[in-house]
Write a structure and sequence with these properties.
With 698 residues, the chain is of the alpha+beta class. Helices cover 49% and strands 13% of the residues. Strands 9, 10, 11, 12, 13, 14, 15, 16 and 17 form a 9-stranded mixed β-sheet that branches. Strands 1, 2, 5, 6, 7 and 8 form a 6-stranded mixed β-sheet that branches. A two-stranded antiparallel ribbon has the order 3-4. A hairpin with a 2-residue loop joins strand 7 and strand 8. The radius of gyration is 28 Å and the shape is globular. The structure holds adenosine-5'-diphosphate and magnesium ion.
Length: 698
């Protein structure tokens, strides 16, 4: 292996590998399935399976797995070896089309939110030919969808593929109206920027909170944090550089277009951005990226933290979902064009997004809701929980001109009339302001910035694709029946701007005044926590939209709401239990022991010099003793709150109780513990501090 281009994608059964190993006929029919979604017959599947196996075995693979994304948020795999016995006692390596297409993992312990219980006992996995198979270790991984026997989706890929289909269908209707007869599909693409922290494995192992929950539950503010902004884009430390180099190699071998890497705002925080890909592939790649980050970190004596908020008071980690839609011919539909017609089409797609985001603010919020991300949204480092769109001054002025039928300064004609004027090219706003917007237009794509670092990007893109498909469906219905296309189009764009301009906000999204304006004056939603937003998944308008587009069934939605809420509850309960344990068995004893040693030292000094006042020791012992009492009392209270959770009737009630009682009690317990930390000798503190963790990687 020498240059990157030699080994890029070497572990992927990609187009090159297919072309090289399949007959022309088989290749052509597989390509048709991949590009157009046409059905694959078993003869072709057998030939593909054989070629895939030979390719994988030649690269050292011994097993295959259907790789899928259950609702746990991570990926799952069950390995089967290729071996099959021969009569002479030897083995041959076998893999059939049937094994490629369909698998039956014993999936009874994956969350199904009651779906499997209601319908059937097991689930099955089905090959997704639109995402290439790849080799991980000694295993050929086949990307698959995971469904119940009744066809209910038990994973994130199935609804994502459905949402892409819905978007393609509706967008094509619009394109036909604009005279495009050649496009066969419209695809959504995503480039997810991934943030993460690196800490040393040695320190990580000493912190039960990091090990059990992925975030620190205690920890006083370090003397130096991110105040100086000296970490952002700063020089990369040698250990981190070595990690990144290794990570890139691993990702490149898997055909993942890792492109940009840099230090982030917080100390020990970094970012990786790939070049964008089709949403489905980008989702698989992002899941793989997160997995490989952890694996490569371990090789370098590091742990990669993907939690949204590993350190209180320090920036958390998010994921920026750069999203656009394009035809199979490569025309980006969110890019203003060169002709008036293309511009009108661009404005219509832009309006579809504006309407979608306004109508389905709640679904976008729900799509990023986790216990971890709740700590991040609205914490002066990430967008608030209120969703708004940033368009930039230029585009904003264009929309205003259309809405009010007034001249637009950028256009030559006196009045902005669609189908007549050529719009100026919109360059991404060079200013920094739009960094605070949850949903920013950046020239030819939208950047949805509310995703948490550990979220699967599937959820956000399912909702985004579906909501935009719905806007387009409504537009297409109207335009297809219009007598005068151009005036109907003009009126519709005007109406969208009028009806939905409340969602457009070009100011500072981190400002408290904005939250007030957004919620009080504009009537935008502000669901601060997962417990607040998740029940709204089942609101009628949401259920109607998602079911009518065929993205989810009602049962699937209900099961997802329950699983997400259960996940929220379990996550916080584990955190609370970990806090109780650490406070009781590590923090209180450490403070107590230190107080005793200070007292003993005062007594020892007095034994030598009886007239010594020892006021320093006396004062400290007093403070520490009071803190131990406080810690102990608050630990008991937290434990009491945990016990009371059993009284909740269902996941909705339990999550509300967690929001209203458990989380506040956790914050209360943290206060005396963090105060004690800065009063206790470092040598007595039972685990590494924030300063150790954040500045520990060399
Ligand atoms: P930044 O936001 O850090 O300034 P860029 O704007 O260059 O960086 O790109 C951020 C991400 O957006 C990258 O992953 C890039 O591949 C992706 N991206 C660029 N163009 C598109 C597009 N048309 N659709 C989706 N993602 C895109
Ligand atoms: Mg960005």
């Amino acid at each position: 292996m020498s240059t990157v281009s030699d080994y890029f994608g070497s572990l992927v059964f990609d187009d090159r590998a297919m072309r090289a190993s399949l007959s022309a006929d088989v290749y052509a029919s597989l390509r048709k399935t991949i590009d157009e979604g046409s059905e694959l017959d078993i003869g072709v599947a057998n030939a593909v399976a054989e070629a895939m196996k030979n390719w994988a075995v030649a690269k050292g693979a011994t097993h295959f797995t259907h790789w899928f994304q259950p609702l746990t948020g991570i990926t799952a795999e069950k390995h089967d070896s290729f071996i099959s016995p021969s009569p002479d006692g030897s083995v041959i390596m076998e893999f059939s089309g049937k094994e490629l297409i369909k698998g039956e993992p014993d999936a009874s312990s994956f969350p199904s939110g009651g779906l499997r219980a209601t319908f059937e006992a097991r689930g099955y996995t089905a090959w997704d030919p639109t995402s290439y198979a790849f080799i991980k270790g000694k295993t050929l991984c086949i990307p698959t969808a995971f469904c119940s026997y009744g066809g209910h989706a038990l994973d994130k890929k199935t609804p994502l593929l459905r949402s892409m289909e819905a978007l393609s269908k509706q967008a094509l209707r619009i394109l036909r109206l604009f005279g495009n007869d050649t496009a066969k599909r419209v695809v959504s693409s995503v480039g997810p920027e991934q943030e993460y922290f690196l800490v040393t494995k040695e320190m990580y192992d000493k912190r039960p909170d990091l090990r059990f929950t992925g975030r620190t539950l205690f920890g006083a503010k370090p003397p130096k944090g991110q105040e100086l902004d000296d970490h952002y884009f700063g020089v990369i430390k040698p250990t981190v550089a070595a990690f990144m180099e290794d990570l890139n190699d691993e990702l490149w071998k898997l055909g993942i277009l890792a492109k940009t890497e840099h230090n982030e705002v917080a100390p020990a925080q970094h970012e990786l951005a790939p070049i964008y890909a089709t949403t489905n592939v980008a989702t698989d790649h992002n899941q793989l990226t997160m997995e490989i980050m952890q694996k490569v970190a371990a090789k370098h004596g590091l742990v990669c933290l993907l939690h949204e908020k590993p350190f209180a008071g320090v920036n958390g980690s998010g994921k920026h979902n750069n999203w656009s839609i394009a035809t199979d011919g490569g025309q980006n539909l969110l890019s203003p064009g060169d002709t008036p017609y293309e511009n009108a089409q661009f404005l219509l797609f832009l309006c579809a997004v504006i309407k979608a985001v306004d109508d389905y603010q709640d679904l976008l919020r729900i799509a990023v809701a986790t216990a971890g991300n709740d700590h991040r949204l609205g914490a002066n480092e990430a967008p608030p929980a209120v969703i708004s769109i940033f368009l930039g001054d230029e585009l904003n002025a264009v929309l205003e001109a259309i809405e009010t039928d007034t001249p637009y300064k950028g256009a030559e004609k006196t009045q902005m009339k669609l189908g007549v004027d050529v719009l100026p090219k919109f360059n991404r706003d060079a200013t920094d302001r739009n960094r605070t917007s949850p949903f920013a237009f950046t020239g030819n794509k939208f950047e949805f910035r509310m995703l948490g670092s550990s979220n699967s990007i599937a959820c956000a893109n399912i909702m985004l694709n579906a909501a935009v498909a719905e806007s387009l469906r409504i537009y297409a219905d109207r335009l297809e029946s219009a007598d005068d296309f151009e005036s109907a189009l003009h009126e519709m764009i005007k109406k969208t701007i009028k009806d939905h301009k409340r969602i457009i906000f070009n100011g500072n999204g981190y400002d408290d005044a904005w939250i007030e304006e957004a919620t009080q004056k504009r009537g935008l939603l502000n669901y601060r926590t997962t417990a607040d937003c998740m029940p709204h998944l089942m609101d009628k308008k949401n259920v109607d939209m998602l079911t009518s587009l065929g993205v989810f069934s009602v049962d699937e939605l209900r099961s997802r709401r329950d699983i997400m809420l259960e996940n929220y509850c379990k996550t916080v309960v584990i955190e609370a239990n970990t806090m109780v344990d650490m406070a009781r068995t590590q923090i209180a004893p450490a403070v107590e022991a230190y107080a005793a040693s200070v007292a003993a030292s005062a007594a020892a000094k007095r034994a030598v010099v009886p007239e010594l006042a020892c006021s320093y020791e006396a004062g400290l012992v007093k403070k520490l003793s009071a803190l131990v009492d406080d810690i102990s009392g608050k630990t008991d209270e937290l434990e009491g709150a945990l016990l009371k959770l059993h009284e909740a009737g269902d996941a909705v009630e339990e999550s509300a109780a967690i929001r209203d009682t458990l989380l506040p009690k956790m914050s209360e317990l943290r206060v005396p513990c963090d105060t004690a930390e800065v009063l206790t000798a470092k040598s007595c503190w039972p685990f590494p501090t924030y300063a150790d963790l954040l500045f520990g990687v060399k």
